[in-house]
């Protein structure tokens, strides 16, 4: 057995595996593992988190579900043409993109799909289990990076919850990087509790809300009264198209509003508007207009503009979350990982809302993951079972 074979490999099963975020995750991980690019944006590669026993980037193996059929290498070429990926990178990591493409399975439900919820969950779980067995993986983490879906209105499980249920059945930790329902559906509450598996989410905090989680505490700590906070998002690509649906946009905005309510202890006037601008592709512009009162009631305004690429902002966070959640699973932690609230607009469990306090909680969590079992205190969540034991 070679030295590389002796390193436990960890699977990352991406829901929405042929999308922009997933493609950037796979290509970026391969580029960093090969030393082609530095790990810019990866918090898990900074000193407070290194040494926590996280799986190496080179140990991550990718697969996933998707309902579209554009091959991953072709999607990577399109992203490079749009400036999302560096020129020449798809060719440099073509083997890794092709390997991930071979591990992508059809998602669902597809139009006209006659399968029941149970049929779909069983099929998705079988795909994930097969991925783990085929790759001889130590474990796998299921990460939802699919387009935002509207909030459910009836008892039927939305697609994101079908995938979450499949993750539980396959014995895998789960991360919801989207605003979609996922593990939050009431029908999954008991299964999540009894699974002995860790989960984290929801809705990755990449741009506008990241800034809000910094500015909100600033106003509170300086005793400045925020009267109104309005925002506009202009974006294209798959996210822009899906968020053109008012119901999907409402699900997205809920997390943005929660950050302000939590950090300001009140909900100021104003709304966030999301506009689909297809010409922008994978790039986004977010503008905020903040009206606040200063000393003696002096009225003032702060405006911010954030221009960035959602895929490039999200990809390092997805890699961080996959590594941290895999390590938590390895250590036997289970239930909602509230310590990962640093990464989310609408985090599970109880925790602070300000980015500074969330970062401190993340660093403490890394210390728990680093500690040896003999140190005690590392299993404050319910004891977890391995995926193989649940099968």
Automatic annotation (TrEMBL):
GO MF term set: inositol-3-phosphate synthase activity
Annotated stretches, region: Disordered: 372-391
Domain of life: Bacteria
A Gene Ontology BP annotation from the UniProt entry: inositol biosynthetic process
InterPro entries in the record: Myo-inos-1-P_Synthase, Myo-inos-1-P_Synthase_GAPDH, NAD(P)-bd_dom_sf
Domain Myo-inositol-1-phosphate synthase GAPDH-like: 207-311
Residue spans of biased composition, Basic and acidic residues class: 378-391
Similarity comment: Belongs to the myo-inositol 1-phosphate synthase family.
PANTHER family in alphabetical order: MYO-INOSITOL-1 PHOSPHATE SYNTHASE
Protein name from the UniProt record: Secreted protein
